[in-house]
Amino acid sequence: MASASDGEWDRRSMLRGAAVVAGAAAAAPLLGGTATAQAGVSLAADQLGHADTATSEPDRIPSDTGPGGAYDRYIAKLAAEDKFSGVVLLSHRGRTVLSRSYGMADKEKGIRNHEGAAFNLYGGPFVSLSIVQLAQRGKVKLWDTVGTYLTGFAKEIAEQVRIHHLLMGTSGLSFPEHDYQRIFHGKEEQHEYYQQYTRQAKLVAAPGAGSNKPGWGADVTVQIVEAVTGMTFWDYVNKHIFGRCGMTGSAYYTRPQWLADEHIAHSYMKQADGSWVDAVRNLDKDSPSPGMAGQNNARNFVPDGGFVTAPDLVRFAEALYDGTVLDPVWADVFTSVKAPNFRGSPGFSTYGPTAHIVEGQWELARSGVHPGSSTHWSIYPDTGWVGVVLSNYDDIPLQEITGQQTQAITGASPGDGGGGG
Known about the structure:
By secondary structure, this protein is α+β, with helices and mostly antiparallel strands. It contains twelve helices and 16 strands.
């Protein structure tokens, strides 16, 4: 129901810019408790005096970010070699600097990708954001245990695992392997499967433990949202996040909608023989790639991650900073640094969950791959940049692409992110 873990691969994510306070357990809000943008004002962080490198020329548009620039040329070359299909978008303070679309949204029907096409998103921030919204409203407390809201879990899970642990990936829970071959034929069937699946969890490490212990619990978090609101998670996000942000092209669409709605890009899985297979039209096919072997997200009646458009992700970034989805103080709760990242990727964990420091400014992003899709989006709150990469191919050089995007925006050489790893 939720994205497989809401916290894997290169889990770089949302955050609000600035001072990390040394200490054993916490960090100060990254914008000093003030909103980054007032209503109607695009992303900026002019008050961040610490980020001299990032804010000295906040309105400058690097030449590599625009049409004909290095990043544009790089993406065009990949597309010409059939190594990229999808949309890239760069926005600065609400203004589109670069928007490019390549390849086919539906090869069978001859429909091309375009800026308004919706792609299957990997690992969006919507699970953790939903819980923080409910905390803001006083409906949940982040230190409450699983058993406060859900029944049917083992006693030690119900009494020891807290919402905070679930959001931080430190719950200590281990889940059985999914039945990836199963094809779901309705929302109720899929929902019931996840209810039973999560209750097979075992506590294999102390909640709150670091290192590489298991602990992502997005599917449990989803069920807490549902128990508190009386809505399915999909409906909650559609109404309280996508709806509030004006993300009119995005939703948790069903498989029948995926097949019928021409604005939703079909996901294409790279096969062992080098061919591309339409995931939604070929449920008997799956990915051969390590880490996704045997999987096909279209077998879910409501595919994990939902579907988003590139402009809608820009709208989401703006809404996170202007009070639309969270009050400013609660946006700080959502995006402030909680701890150094301890799972191999440099950076810092947040409820979002990971942030990086690049050339003296925060890069706040999320990347990942589903069978048939690869997605990345990032926010640079100090300078007002938002970058989006949405592809309906699952075998693209995604980390290289994101490195080129970061270099175009910040001047940092690919791989130069840092701080806290």
